[in-house]
Amino acid sequence: MSEARKTETTDRKEPLSKARLRLWLKLLKASNLIEASLRQKLRAEFGSTLPRFDVMSALYRSPEGLKMSQISQMLRVSNGNITGIVDKLTEEGLALRVAVPGDRRAHRVRLTDKGHEVFATHAAAHEGWIDAMLAGLDSDDVDGMVRRLDHLSDTMKEHD
């Protein structure tokens, strides 16, 4: 990036670095508001948590199952965080551990039929909640934001 681009200013004549910092804070605030609402709704409607929803979502998308390390990698959390959730899902008959042939220490975790049914119910409610929260955005708003956030993600990958 050129030095001129780094010091570019916005229409408000503030340094672009300050505008980028403000953007980050607004993205974080919006994300935190959505996440807090989802946490509350999952707890109130299903007696569940967002981390549990995320684990079930990962398993739902992987019918062949996932190793614990794969789940933690997908969700960017420690194996320890995943273990407690998987233990509880297993106790409730929503998931099961299947031994990996040739590796007696490794197991794949997958949802049971009951787990699939429960997650499908939670996922439908989740989609409805997100839709309601973002109802003030029309299709142009959504498409524009998705494009810009994709661009941001690409930029971040290049930065790393």
From TrEMBL:
SMART domains: HTH_MARR. It comes from the Bacteria. InterPro entries: HTH_MarR-typ (IPR000835), MarR/SlyA-like (IPR039422), WH-like_DNA-bd_sf (IPR036388), WH_DNA-bd_sf (IPR036390). GO terms for biological process: response to stress. GO terms for molecular function: DNA-binding transcription factor activity. Residues 20-154 form the HTH marR-type domain. SUPFAM superfamilies: Winged helix' DNA-binding domain. Pfam families: MarR_2. This is MarR family transcriptional regulator.
